[in-house]
């Protein structure tokens, strides 16, 4: 039987930064939640409430996000993957269910791919689609978008609702995500995942997308599930990308239970 862990909130030092973390404790199976690119751990509140206290919920704010996590000289996806290890090590967790939304879904897939013995199961929420949406024209569009958003971001930054990365750092993070989401780069990562993995997919647009762009990107999931029997579509929900954690938390919770149950049976 797993030893009971007390609830904990604090900063976890790692590399040149420190990450604000919340661990609900308990003696249940651990779930670690990986946020959207510029989101905070509070976005998972409804999913956590739906799953309840029989699980051990671990959330954290990525580098430069939220009000407490410290800034860094490295905002790369590789740093985000390393931070999953740092948080789990600091909280003494050897195995966990990994749940990621948007950017966090890509981080979750990479971490799961590299740690098949440590991931009980994985849930990818409207992210991690291997599709060639990044090119030089899109790079220019992203840089323009974040440059235009700079004044609003600066006003909201003290509240923790926007990251403390500057406009250039935010753009670079988004551009890196695009290149690393291309079919020939992300596809092999997903094809090699060996643990139960469930997708919960939104409908409609996301920030910065136009028309049917986001729905076209989501069509790549059919090839993923066809190639890897460990990966399944758990639900296609009506809410859009930005509202999925708020409106379709029950579908996310159901997918988490499913992935965890199948993963536990496999041992």
N→C terminal distance: 15 Å
Net shape: globular
**Rg measurement, Å:** 17 Å
Sequence of strands across the biggest β-sheet: 1-2-4-3-5-6-7-8
CATH class: Alpha Beta
The average pLDDT value, as a whole number, equals 94
- Level-2 CATH architecture: 3-Layer(aba) Sandwich
Q: How many structural domains?
A: 1
The CATH homologous superfamily is termed: Alpha/Beta hydrolase fold, catalytic domain
Number of helices: 10
Q: Give the helices and strands as they follow along the chain.
A: EEEHEHEHEHHHEHHEHH
The description of the largest β-sheet is: 8 strands, mixed
Total count of strands: 8
Q: Return the structural class.
A: alpha/beta
CATH fold-type name: Rossmann fold
| Beta-strand percentage range | 15-25%
Summarize the amount of helix as a percent range: 40-55%
Oligomeric state of this protein = single chain
Low confidence ranges: none
């Amino acid at each position: 039987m797993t030893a009971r862990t007390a609830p904990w909130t604090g900063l976890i030092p790692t590399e040149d930064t420190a990450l604000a973390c919340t661990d609900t404790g308990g003696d249940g199976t651990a779930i670690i939640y990986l946020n959207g690119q510029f989101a905070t751990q509070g976005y998972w509140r409804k999913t956590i409430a739906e799953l309840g206290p029989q699980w051990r919920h671990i959330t954290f704010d990525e580098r430069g996000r939220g009000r407490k996590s410290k800034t860094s000289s490295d905002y790369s996806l590789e740093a985000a993957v390393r931070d999953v290890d740092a948080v789990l090590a600091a909280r003494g967790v050897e195995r966990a269910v990994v749940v990621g939304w948007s950017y966090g879904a890509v981080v979750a897939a990479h971490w799961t791919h590299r740690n098949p013995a440590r991931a009980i199961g994985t849930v990818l929420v409207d992210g991690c689609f291997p599709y060639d949406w990044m090119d030089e024209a899109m790079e220019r569009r992203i840089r323009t978008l974040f440059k235009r958003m700079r004044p609003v971001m600066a006003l909201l930054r003290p509240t923790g609702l926007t990251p403390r990365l500057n406009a250039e750092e935010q753009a670079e993070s988004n551009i890196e995500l695009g290149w690393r989401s291309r079919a020939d780069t992300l596809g092999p990562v997903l094809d090699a995942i060996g643990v139960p993995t469930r997708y919960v997919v939104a409908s409609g647009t996301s920030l910065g997308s136009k028309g049917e762009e986001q729905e076209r990107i989501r069509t790549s999931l059919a090839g993923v599930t066809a190639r890897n029997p460990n990966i399944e579509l758990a639900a296609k929900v009506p809410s859009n990308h930005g509202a999925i954690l708020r409106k379709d938390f029950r579908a996310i919770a159901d997918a988490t239970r499913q992935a965890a149950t199948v993963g536990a049976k496999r041992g």
